[in-house]
Design goal:
The chain is an alpha/beta fold. It has five helices and twelve strands. The chain has a single domain, classed as Class I glutamine amidotransferase (GATase) domain (Rossmann fold, 3-Layer(aba) Sandwich). The chain has helices spanning 15-27, 82-93, 105-111, 126-131, 156-167, and strands at residues 3-7, 11-13, 31-36, 40-44, 49-52, 54-55, 66-69, 98-101, 118-119, 135-136, 141-144, 147-150. The strands form three sheets. The protein has a seven-stranded mixed sheet, with helices on both faces.
Length: 168
């Protein structure tokens, strides 16, 4: 069975950016593991809860087929986090799918993996993407090779389907 990891903020992640893609991905027979900077309960912007079962510092890229960074205001805790940036680079070097939705695209930009790649992000992250060398398109969803970016909750279904297509 294929397996991917969702990097999710401990609080203020965008509920629909987590739950809708997760449902689509699991329906396709892919296991989703949730990771954060803490183990245990995570609370979304609208109060929905999920559980982190692994610390980001304990993730081994060899254990997963893809990595997904979930957006929302809380994801800013990962913008300069050495583990999230390192993981993006590891997955990129192993040619495994990397995905980020909403403002979480800043993580990919800060890791350096977007250099010369088409990408999109929630508008507040546009400057970070450009600084990171990305070709910011402003599209709702952008797929460039094995990098998938989306600009927010309006495209959660398409985002989930693009991840499934990249893994299967």
């Amino acid at each position: 069975m294929k397996k991917l990891v969702f990097i999710t903020a401990p609080k203020l992640f965008r509920d629909e950016e987590y739950f809708t893609p997760k449902k689509i991905i699991e329906k396709a027979g892919i296991e989703v593991i949730t990771a954060s900077i803490k183990i245990g309960k995570l609370i979304g912007r609208f109060g929905y809860k999920t559980v982190s079962t692994i610390l980001i510092s304990d993730i081994k890229s060899s254990d997963f087929d893809a990595i997904v960074y979930i957006g929302g205001n809380g994801s800013s805790v990962f913008f300069e986090n050495k583990y999230t940036l390192q993981l993006a680079n590891e997955f990129f070097k192993q040619n495994k799918p990397l995905a980020a939705i909403c403002i979480a695209g800043v993580i990919l930009a800060n890791s350096g993996v977007l250099k010369g790649r088409k990408a999109t992000v929630y508008i507040d992250g546009k400057e970070a993407l450009v600084r990171g060398g990305a070709d910011y398109t402003g599209n709702s969803l952008e797929v460039d090779g094995n990098i998938i970016t989306a600009n927010g909750p309006n495209v959660v279904e398409e985002f989930g389907k693009a991840i499934v297509k990249a893994i299967i």
